[in-house]
Amino acid sequence: MTKTLLIVFHSMTGGTCQMAEAAAAAAAGQGVVVRLLHAAQAQVDDVLAADGYIFGTPENLAAISGLMKDFFDRSYYAALGRIEGRPHALMVCAGSDGTNAVRQMSRITTGWRLRLVAEPLIVCTHAQTPEAILAPKTIPPEDVARCEELGAALGAGLAMGIF
Question: pTM for the complete prediction?
């Protein structure tokens, strides 16, 4: 039976989108069905139908993005008690740190009783001025490769039944 990996992300300036797309492309090559959904489109039925997850967000004002929070708000209670033990990973595109966004998503996924199967991946863009923060982002090749590795590992683990 083919496993499904759901990747839910939000991106304002393109960085997190590039990260999610890289993970999705690499996971698809591992024999799993990959569903890449923007946080605004993702629904609880998508969460329930998936066998594993990658959640990706920019860090905005030391927090997850509003639309990512909205996704979790809309999905959390309807999925609670129905997805325990499923594997997941976290990705954050940050200007300087990213750890608080990881902490917030970790609290949510811990409440869902999901199993973290990789270290959270934080890509730091070093955007520190209003102009740099709001500018379109291009993720460097070495960080894109890290996202691909994460996607491939989660996809392979699902396909082989490790997770």
Answer: 0.98
- Domain extent for 124: 4-160
Render pLDDT for 44-63 as a digit per residue (tens, 0 to 9).
999 999 999 999 999 999 99
Residues forming a β-bridge with 38 = 9
Residue tagged 């629904």 (tokens): 43
8: domain CATH number?
3.40.50.360
In angstroms, rounded to a whole number, what is the distance separating the alpha carbons of residues 24 and 135? 24
Do residues 34 and 142 make contact, with C-beta atoms less than 8 angstroms apart?
A: no
Query: For residue 33, what are its two tokens?
Result: 């069905």
Q: What does the alpha-carbon distance between residue 18 and residue 109 come to, in Å, rounded to a whole number?
A: 23
Mean pLDDT across 16-24: 98
Q: How many domains does the chain have?
A: 1
List of E strands, 39-160: 52-60, 63-64, 87-94, 115-116, 121-124
